[in-house]
Fold:
Amino acid sequence: MRQTSAGPRAVRGTWLRRLLGGLGVRVRFESFGGIVALERPPLLAFVDQAFLRRLGFREHPRWGEARSTLSAPTEVHMTLTRACPVGCRGCYVDAAEPAPGELSTAAACAVLDDLAAAGVLHVAMGGGESYVRPDLFDIASHARQLGMVPNVTTSGLGMTQDLARRSRVFGQVNVSVDGLAGWDDSAGRPRGSWEVAERALELLRRARVRTGVNCVVTRQNVERLDELARAVRRLGVREVEFLRIKPTGRGTTDYGRRVLTREQARGVYPRILALARSARIRPRIDCSFLPMACHHAPDLGRMKLLGMLGCEAGHHLASVDSVGRVHACSFLEDGRTLPRGLAAEWDAADALVDYRHYRDRAPEPCASCAYLSICGGGCRAVSRFLTGDPFRPDPECPRVEDWSAARAQGSRAVAGSGPLLGDPPDQCAEAGDPVVPPHHGRQPGEPRASDSGDTEPGEIVV
Structure:
């Protein structure tokens, strides 16, 4: 008897889905196709419909939706508490004592239920100091049970062998390190912070926990990032995320003294790229550093391929604070309580939608910038602090600085902007330079395929 083509495709599709499920792969359907998520190695791949058909998935209702935005954020930052004994002067949430009405264990787990229902893939937990919550591992385990990957950031204070062992529940633990022993307090951290972080990193390494380092880049430490990178590399850390200082919380008090100078800001991206070679680390930059990267005119297509994204507040990213309010970003202070939850209100909540659509109504000089589609206009928190309006272009963006200076001089030309006014060059500024993806943009492009297959609802799909 002649076998129809539907049979082999169905068998192949079932086998592929089982294989993907065994590897811990999740698929979230979107109008363009879907997002394939993998924890080891960390991966968020945005793929088209044809690629998913080739993996054995049949048509999904979302494929018929006419939408230009995601159905939910890929990652949510969750502030578990504002309690923290460290007392950093630059703390962006003004952490010290717990906030009145902080989420209980049950309430925090209910938030996670809502995020999972929306299709969130990663939850980045932080504080304050998350490890002061005795229920931290219960909350993280609940996220795991829901199919989300929990990650956490810590100062390292109070880390013990037992806490390090229990931290295996997290996909990754990032320890904050802004300076080494003997440095001035670059981000306002008290003396002894390096020793605390060093001990925590060593305990986590011994417990075989995937670790990384978060480093807030300031005027005081930017010239010494190579020393810092080499020091953490000796501790076995490969991934270092460099964060732009934000004027929120206590970070507003001496922002003018700690923020990078104009020259430092324009040179920070090549400096970080050089660390990939000299210190043998995998550097990452946070989304707010994209304007500084774009100043060097990297290849736009390559940046898109590697998933480099600037501000994705209210789109790829959202935040939940310690009392349950939802924000477009953890650095924005205009969050709202969503009575029906994120899953139900994602498409309509003002606290999210206005930020999500910045690119659609960006003013100059963002509107004519070739990098707007990935940069997103810089940091909304910086814009709010320096201009009073979060929807103005980031005043610290080199292009905005040049454009503003030219306007002040009565000129219509943007001096020194070069390729930023038109199409970006075909090649990166220096051939062979690695492109450093922001933390939340681990998307290697859109594979193309043209086969078809079948699927069954509920299998490794959210």
